Amino acid sequence: MPRTPPGRPMANDVAIRASGLTRRFGDLVAVDRLELRVPRRTIYGFLGPNGSGKSTTIRMLCGLLTPSAGSVEVLGHRIPQEAEQLKHKIGYMTQRFSLYDDLSVRENLAFMSRIYCLPKRSRSARIDAALDTYNLTAQARQFAGTLSGGQKQRLALAAATLHEPEILFLDEPTSAVDPQTRRDFWETLFNLVDAGTTILVSTHYMDEAERCHRLAILDRGRVVADDEPDALMANLGAHVVEVETDAAQALRQRLKNQAVVLSVTQLGRRLRVLVRPRVHDPEALIQSQMRNAGIAGNARLTHASLEDVFVITTRHVDRTPEVAA
Amino acid sequence: MSACFTRLFAIVRKEVQQLRRDRLTFAMIVGIPILQILLFGYAIDTDVRHLRAAVVDQSQTQLSRRLLTDAESTQVVDIVAHADTGEQLQRMLDRGDVDIGILVPHDFERRLAEGTRAAAQLLVNGSDPVLLGSARGLLGMPAPDIRLPPRQDKAVGLFEVRNFYNPERRSAVFVVPGLIGVILTMTLVLFTAVAVVRERERGNLEMLINTPVRGSELMVGKIIPYVVIGLIQVTLILLFGRLLFHVPVNGALHDVYLASVVFIASNLTLGLVISTFSKTQFQAMQMTIFFLLPSILLSGFMFPFDGMPRAAQLLAELLPLTHFVRLIRGVLLRGEALMAMSHELYALLAFVAVALLAATLRFKKRLD
Fold first, then answer.
1. Complex ipTM, two decimals?
2. A289 lies in the same domain as A169
3. Alpha-carbon span A176 to A194, nearest angstrom
4. Which residues in chain A touch residue B11, judged by CB atoms under 8 angstroms apart?
5. Is A107 close to B209, i.e. CB distance below 8 A?
6. Are A122 and A57 within one domain?
7. Which residues contact B190 (CB under 8 A, 6 or more apart)?
8. Between A59, A66, A87, which is nearest B211 by CB?
9. Residues of A contacting chain B (CB within 8 angstroms)
């Protein structure tokens, strides 16, 4: 067992700690002074649009990329210096399916069991158990390249967890599967956490993000929010008004130009309007706007969703809010 | 240590499984050697007949006429012209009017009787290995006078061959051993380079470098299956060379394979080095060709090494094929022992060591 060197105590309940983590690619700052503290036995989410630095951060935490600045400690190992000692203890599921298309499901798992040097006697049992857990027994002899998106994803997870890692890194694991498969996938993740695994998962799906124990919202390489999903929603820093109207498009155009309106999102006949907190009665404000424009409808204050948090935190002056939404 | 072998074996096993399913590569493993040896072999068929020949018969005896009839009856030559002097004969050769000149000297009968000097001269346009190879067929002809005792001293033949334009005397037999080296270079460098780059392209590598597998395990595991493939190719070429072109194995067979294993390893490690430089399979292919061309041209396979300028020779010494061509010709044709040419073997081993080190150092378990 690797020990935490003296003078650098690490709380046993923290799996990953990063400080001032920065990565530059030429002029581009992909990850900018990132602070991170991932508690053990939790699912920690990275939520962010494409290019926000999620994958780069995960790669730095695994030791695949060298940080330009900052420090990383994973399970007490300093990364990237001690990355090799860490390899046995982590599992990594890449964004793209990265097992061998021309090997069968079982052959792929057998390959991984040898690469991780699992004891010879237990290899076969371990593989059978994984096939069973991830519902792949029927496909055991099928080439991985011919599997469906959901099956590939289950195989990738089976391969990444075969050696029972302490931390599992999942880089947008569900980007290629349908919602039902996604739900099943998350069931499995919670089972893994119950068994003691720490999971760091990146996503751009709100429903997935909401399932995480804790969430960091990344935007252009920076953490713009970091808390439990409920706390993020409770401390949104904006009023959420939902408007139901037949003239949604016209009203949206009108509200967009109001200084106190942070964002307007259209959802069919409804508009979701985020209003600055300094406005005392946002409902009245919207209703007066509708009266002035001669638009009939009904506005009411509602609870914030994670999407609202995402819109507010990743909002830029140079970017129209609805793009982020 | 055992863990290390488990991972190494895992890579080897996976590579073999993938190879078995890659029909195209599999076809190339067998197809390239066969195709090449047929192309090269038949293009340089030694069994060419009816070459145009000119004759200067200064002896003008019954025996000399007998010699010329015998020569024609081998069907190797057709005597199409007669000349009066050796100079005339050479001019005809220079102009390309004839391919072979036969010069029977005044003292032909005496030479034949003494048996200490060649009795007649064969002048051959040796710039074309086909001609040279064919003309050498005449050397085995028996002397025309059956009353003379059989010539015991094999060093003194009936003919003295004057090989013009090409002192190295190349022929099919001479080319096939080198061809083993060319085919191995052609296929194996590319196979390994592509095998690694393909993993990079398909994203497998990002997964692999996140496992405990070491760079050296990955590199060595990748080349082991191809060593076996290389040996299969060597066997194929030797068999075809023997059956179709009567290429001899004068040296020890284990020397042939030992030299081949070391040469195969040098090609594979070179392939690995190339793989660490290329991002796509196409780049790997281009770099392989970049290496293959000088190998074929400078190694002595195509042009005599001695005829090359000093700079080209120095460059050629850096190429594994140069050393292998010398080794394999020595073993197959001259029947030399491998250890008698150990310096060539060490040169190959040094290449393997440097290339493997370079590949392992360059292969980083990082993405940056």
1. 0.79
2. no
3. 26
4. 115
5. no
6. yes
7. B271, B284, B285, B288
8. A87
9. 59, 62-66, 80, 83-84, 87-88, 90, 92, 94, 96-103, 107, 111-112, 114-117, 120, 159
Number of domains into which chain B is organized: 2
Please list, in sequence order, all residues whose beta carbon lies within 8 angstroms of the beta carbon of residue B310, skipping any fewer than 6 positions away: none
**Which chain A residues contact residue B209 at CB under 8 A?**
64
A194: domain range?
40-68+80-227
Pick the residue of B24, B204, B211 with the most A CBs within 10 A to test the interface with A by mutation.
B211
SS3 state of residue A245: strand
For the beta carbon of residue A158, count every other beta carbon within 10 angstroms.
24
Whether residue B27 sits in one domain with residue B157: no
pLDDT tens for each residue of B27-80: 888 888 888 777 776 665 545 567 788 899 888 888 888 888 888 887 778 888
pLDDT, tens digit, 9 for 90 and up, residues A281-320: 998 988 888 888 888 888 899 999 999 998 888 876 444 4
B182 shares its domain with B280: yes
Residue pLDDT, tens place only, A102-123: 999 999 999 999 999 999 999 9
Amino acid (one-letter) located at B275: S
pTM over 0.80: no
User: Would you list the DSSP string of B278-322?
Assistant: -SSHHHHHHHHHHHHHHHHHHSSSSS-GGGS-HHHHHHHHTSHHH
d(CA A58, CA B249): 59
What is the C-alpha to C-alpha distance for residues A62 and A95, in angstroms, rounded to an integer?
A: 14
Residues B65 and B126 in one domain: yes
Where does a domain end: B164, B180, B211?
Answer: B164
Helix intervals (H) in B151-300: 172-202, 204-208, 215-245, 253-277, 281-298
CB spacing of A111 vs B10 below 8 angstroms: yes
B273 and B149 in one domain?
Answer: no
- Same domain (yes/no): A212, A87: yes
Q: Which residues neighbour A128 within 8 Å (Cβ) at sequence distance 6 or greater?
A: A137
Chosen domain end from A193, A227, A261: A227
Q: Do A115 and B208 touch (CB under 8 A)?
A: yes
* Residues pairing with A201 in the sheet: A45, A170
Given B17, B22, B203, which is nearest A94 (Cβ)? B203
In chain A, what residues touch B19 (CB-CB under 8 Å)? none
Asked whether residue A60 is domain-assigned, the answer is yes
